[in-house]
């Protein structure tokens, strides 16, 4: 009997001393696997999985393995919000990120806030995301429409001063936001002199784009501002090329991504100008070592170059890791305080999360699509963009006074 008791005591001691595997740390990615923005969604997924794999190989976050749980928004706000609720309530994720449509990101962010979880906007350019609709639990990683317009206007006001513009705009929050901002900073707010047309969203047809482009051609404008994104931009630009408009007008796509450029192709895209918070050539042009590491790891793993969407998702995962490790907790309130005002250097030069609106402040760029022969010289035939202008983030972003004015107009409090 004594021997049995001793044996039992010994086994209990061994069990108590045995290491217990730390609980998996779940984070949720809510992105469009289908719909008009599926290519940008896929890039988010690829960037996020790369970050998670790297982090897990390095020991996880505070010793906990990271698990990425994904959901398909299909580009629909209601579905995005439902997915976010499910990721938190059923899956137990500690943070959610994603979105391409700003309407999806805003709806998803509210669902996260209601459950006291952080939401990081991965691709959401409407001013409202961190403006009129901003709240304490929403952090936006890319730039917004205001910042896009500021950097583009710096270039356009020099190159196209006095020229007539024509706007083709997706009829939803992002499109309105971008058009309003670009008009403001390019002095084209007079809609009689600088005409425009709205195209349906999310179900625009080729005929909608053709009719809009016919009006653009008839206007005699020199600058064609195509406030379209994803598959909508791809289809519209193909029609513009068929009509010969890309040779007659300077085509500007305010938010230009590698994925959209690849879908259209180098011949049609040549000479198109747009804005971007990041393109894969930035780290090489300005010698940002960590950015080069990301591009090379992504290119090697997926046999393609990363887009802005991939870089945004990748950065968010690492920023969440950094915040958790700096605070020593996954508590949402403490993470919010840790993120606010935090400065860091990652894939480019210094960035920071602004405290009063949670907008990521960073350098923004104007890019122009290169000639086909230069694009094809790249190993992955993807060297699309020449950086032709840039602006520091603090100069591009709204001031606090400008932000507060928009909050007052929307009847929102002046603090998050």
Automatic annotation (TrEMBL):
Domain Leucine-binding protein, chain residue ranges per copy: 24-370
Top-level taxon in the UniProt lineage: Bacteria
CDD domains documented for this protein: PBP1_SBP-like (cd19987)
Position of the signal peptide: 1-21
InterPro entries associated with the record: BCAA_transport, Leu-bd, Peripla_BP_I
Keyword tags: Signal
One Pfam family here: Peripla_BP_6
PANTHER family: LEUCINE-SPECIFIC-BINDING PROTEIN, PERIPLASMIC BINDING PROTEIN OF ABC TRANSPORTER FOR NATURAL AMINO ACIDS
Family listed: Belongs to the leucine-binding protein family.
Protein name: ABC-type branched-chain amino acid transport system, periplasmic component
The species this protein was found in: Marinobacter algicola DG893
């Amino acid at each position: 009997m004594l021997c049995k008791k001793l044996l039992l005591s010994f086994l209990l001691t061994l069990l108590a001393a045995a290491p217990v595997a730390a609980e998996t740390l779940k984070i949720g990615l809510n992105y469009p696997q289908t719909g008009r923005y599926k290519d940008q969604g896929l890039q988010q997924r690829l960037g996020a999985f790369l970050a998670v794999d790297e982090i897990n190989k390095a020991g996880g976050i505070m010793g906990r393995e990271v698990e990425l749980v994904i959901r398909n928004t299909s580009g629909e706000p209601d579905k995005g919000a439902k997915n976010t609720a499910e990721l938190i309530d059923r899956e137990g994720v500690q943070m959610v990120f994603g979105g391409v449509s700003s309407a999806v990101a805003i709806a998803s962010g509210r669902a996260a806030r209601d459950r006291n979880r952080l939401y990081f906007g991965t691709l959401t350019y409407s001013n409202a995301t961190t403006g009129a609709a901003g709240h304490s639990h929403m952090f936006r990683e890319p730039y917004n429409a205001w910042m896009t317009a500021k950097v583009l206007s710096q270039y356009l006001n020099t190159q196209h001063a006095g020229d007539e513009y024509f706007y083709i705009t997706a009829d939803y929050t992002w499109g309105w936001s971008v058009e309003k901002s670009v008009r403001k900073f390019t002095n084209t707010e007079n809609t009689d002199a600088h005409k425009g047309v709205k195209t349906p969203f999310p179900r625009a047809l080729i005929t909608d784009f053709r009719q809009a482009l016919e009006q653009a051609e008839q206007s005699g404008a020199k600058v064609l501002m195509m406030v379209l994104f994803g598959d909508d931009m791809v289809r519209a630009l193909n029609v513009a090329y068929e009509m010969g408009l890309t040779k007659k007008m300077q085509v500007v796509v305010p938010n230009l991504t590698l994925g959209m450029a690849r879908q259209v192709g180098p011949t049609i895209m040549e000479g198109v100008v747009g804005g971007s918070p990041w393109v894969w050539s930035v780290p090489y042009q300005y010698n940002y070592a960590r950015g080069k590491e990301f591009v090379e790891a992504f290119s090697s793993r997926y046999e393609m170059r990363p887009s802005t969407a991939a870089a945004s998702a990748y950065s968010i995962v690492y920023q969440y890791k950094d915040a958790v490790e700096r605070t020593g907790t996954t508590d949402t309130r403490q993470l919010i305080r840790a993120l606010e005002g935090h400065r860091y250097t990652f894939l480019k030069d210094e960035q920071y999360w602004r405290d009063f609106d949670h907008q990521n402040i960073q350098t923004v760029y104007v890019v122009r699509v290169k000639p086909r022969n230069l694009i094809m010289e790249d190993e992955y035939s993807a060297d699309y963009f020449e950086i032709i202008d840039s602006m520091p983030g603090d100069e591009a972003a709204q001031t606090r006074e400008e932000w507060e004015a928009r909050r007052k107009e929307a009847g929102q409090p002046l603090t998050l």
